[in-house]
Here is the input.
Amino acid sequence: MKSGVNLMTARKMRQITNKIIEVDPKFAGVIEKSELCDLGRTKVNDSYFKTLVQSIISQQLATKAAEKINDRVLALVKKELEPEVILSLKPELLRSAGISNAKVRAITELSIASLDNRVNFSKFKQMPNHLITEELTKIWGIGRWTSEMFLIFHMGRLNVWPVGDLGVRRGWEKIHKLRSDIDPNKLDKKGIKFEGFQSVVAWYCWRAVDS
Here is the structure.
């Protein structure tokens, strides 16, 4: 199942960034210095399944290390990253690509759930965020963070507030010049005023960390 999202225009995104500055003027600096947020503005060609497998592989890994392992897996499956192909491989072969035992289990569980329709990707486009997260997190090895990254970067959902992500918290602290770490629960409440475009706020928090 491909993403099938309706792409957002640059004009609409600028309206959102203007609204963010209106709600919280401290975001003006990072928004003005960064490129325009591209969430929902770029077509995603990978399937839901492929994106989730690669997200599982990438958990708690540096970007370059994750890319190398993902490349090895794509070579193993001859670029056909589908549930049937994954299940046809012996676990030892996946581990030889650099995937941990826990991640091999998670990928296997996702493959089985995809085939027996416990995860029905065909309905995701019409489902609200919380139901997608509820469905995905029933699978062993997929947590809230993986689901949120999937919603933001693959499905282009703009109303996701990933306060469990360290980068989002560090970016918020930098933008607001905080001297101590912000508690995720406290940040969750602060995100209420950004409802409807919380993912964009998170995106600029990440940019603040990178700058």
